[in-house]
Amino acid sequence: MLAMQSYCEASASISEAWLEGGISPCFYFTLVPTVLLTLSFFFGTFQCVFYHRYGTEMEPKFVPRSHLYRLQLAVSLLVLLQFLGGLVWRAAGGGGGGELPGYVILYGCLSMLGWAWAVALLRLERKRVLVRDRTRGHSTVLLLFWAVAFSAENLAFVSWVSPYWWWGLENTQQQVEFFLWLVRYFGTGTLFFLGLKAPGLPRRPYMLLINEDERDIEGGTGQVTSAAALPESTWQDFGKKVRMLLPYMWPRGNVLLQGLVLLCLCLLGLERVINVFVPIYYKNIVNELTDGSSWKTLATTVCVYVLLKFLQGGGSGASGFISNMRTFLWIRVQQYTNRVVQVRLFGHLHSLSLRWHLGRRTGDVLRSIDRGTSSINSLLSYIVFSIFPTIADIVISIIYFVTYFNAWFGLIVFVCMFLYLTLTIIITEWRTKYRRDMNTQDNNAKSKAVDSLLNFETVKYYNAENYEVNRFEDAILKYQVSEWKTQASLAFLNQTQNIIIGAGLLAGSLLCAYFVQDGKFKVGDFVLFGTYIIQLYTPLNWFGTYYRMIQNSFIDMESMFKLFTEEKEVKDEVNAGNLLFKRGKVEFENVYFNYTDGKEILKDVSFTVQPGQTLALVGQSGSGKSTILRLLFRFYDIQGGCIRIDGQDISKVKQVSLRAHIGVVPQDTVLFNDNIRNNIRYGRVTASDQEVEEAAIAADIHEKIQAFPEGYDSQVGERGLKLSGGEKQRVAIARTILKAPQIILLDEATSALDTQTERNIQASLAKVCSNRTTIVVAHRLSTIIGADQILVVSDGQIAERGRHEELLAKGGLYSDMWMRQQQAQDSDSASDTETKDMASEKLQPPSAIVGHRSH
What we know:
Residues 821-855 are annotated as: Disordered. The protein is of the alpha/beta class.
């Protein structure tokens, strides 16, 4: 017994855990350093062995220089020195000159050993790394060490009323011990939260950094695009994501919706109050039944309880009157958010450059939009009406249990909450990569399906149906592999949460039952505890789901945020004005342009088109003819030179005003999945039906449309697949005629037409283009004989220029092209004649054929 007294204080025993309203100091200061030393020394030794045997020295260039790491190291040393200082102070008689308990010496020595080993592990992780380690951040040993140390310091609050602890600050010893506790508390808290960020370690796996560095050296570029380059955590750039969400959280300019938001928040606060009073009134009913209270009192209590349950609904308030009312009022706010997000994103996509749209994957973009817009509504709903209320309920419950029952119940709730939330966050962060990979595979599968259906004709041409089906099946199988990993990890998370909740409920129920049996609590108190704790665990059980949903929403939003962050390649200047159209003079002056660096498409191109003139561009495919039209329409910005219309630099005016004066008939016409009338009306959406028909007559397609069963109401199908190539092109010409622009760009506008139709449309185009500046890209030279100026483009440069007769007289590139086309036309004519002769021979009797041949 004397040994026990020399180890603990007088009249105390290490076997006694609870002493005068608090944890026994002897028990606490023996248990805590033992656990910490076991964590750091025992498990840390295994980590050191593995790091030295299977690890490698990190190259200094990959180790980030961080002030936070220096702070991490300094705080660790400060905590270690605090233990040494406290032990020296107590040994020197600072504790009042009495006997120095053995547990104080044990606490100081073991704590210093444990923290010294933790500092060594911290420095080891900064110097060495496991080669096969695919994770980032500190090891589990260090994170668990800091978490336990911080939790242990929080346990001191349980002993708030105990005279054996320092909270009273009655003498110098307690004041010094309180100061040392403050150093430990803020030190361990700082280390725990800094440890989650791991400032002294690379942000990505070390082997990935090495591989990227090798590819950079081999490829000679500083950028590597890979899936691994995506953020490891969905909470990365959290502030940026929240700032993008802010405009959708508060409906600006709509007082009614703002009032609905405030009303919903008030109802949310009312729900928190009701959640506290429901178990209290349930307890009162039980106590009044057991105490034999009057019927009037009992009936009043029951009515109030039923009213509160009606307002609250289920245990989580999911189906109560207030919750349903709040959900009903929130519908308009949710619709506003959904509408604003989709409209802004749709407008942003239309503002992006042609380069981006040529490289996009339509199915991928559509899936990203669908998931992204729905995820914003989910985020707002979960954060405002699930996460915040759940945290508020947890805080209120801890305060209530500590106040009404005792500190043990608050401790049980706190430990369960802490373990539950910590493990939920850790496991959910671990599951992030599976969810992200599942989204990627889902996008791939949908993109393959959309791409295959859009190219239905090509699939049929090459009998590739089975190939496309197999490709889609392979994509589905890859998606299902990722889906299985996601669902399996979810099941593991749910089981972990269930174990924590069950253990907490068991411990609290046993303790409460013990106090009831001991006479300290009434039966109603046990009912109160059971009701309240179950009511608390219900939203807590959903907390993991809410957190996963929020994280999944962030993952789903990543692709949408990426769309929002796509920069516009072609932008209007800040003070850009409208194009002041006068006569339609077009000038290219020393224009240089390239789609990608290092390969010039246009080199020093200069020409002038006078108002009302027609300029023709001819040349080999890929020489840059269509690029000239795209630059004039300002699909791209040039790298050098200047493009002017009526003396105004088109890069200095608004794109909308520029394109309002230009009409384009493209080489490849794509129509909307609508009727013919609306497709033609797209040239000017305010045009009347009569104007639409007049444009169709001018484009020589009116009679063809009238021959259709439904006339102008005939559906053209997706991308106009129900029409022939010539019909689609004539619809495009009718659109341009309806727009009535001052400048017309024709990109091989009659390439898909037969000879007779081409002649008819050429006549129509001649009328439309009269007195208008026209630039024509032509393949058939016979269609541009009457052009005022012809430019022969070769390798991005203007090789020849002049009128038709002048270019033929030069005997250059244009003359060669003309001769080849004439020879090809003569050959086609001869083939047609021979075909007709063979057909006439087949119609004659055999004798006639023979006689003819003999003759």
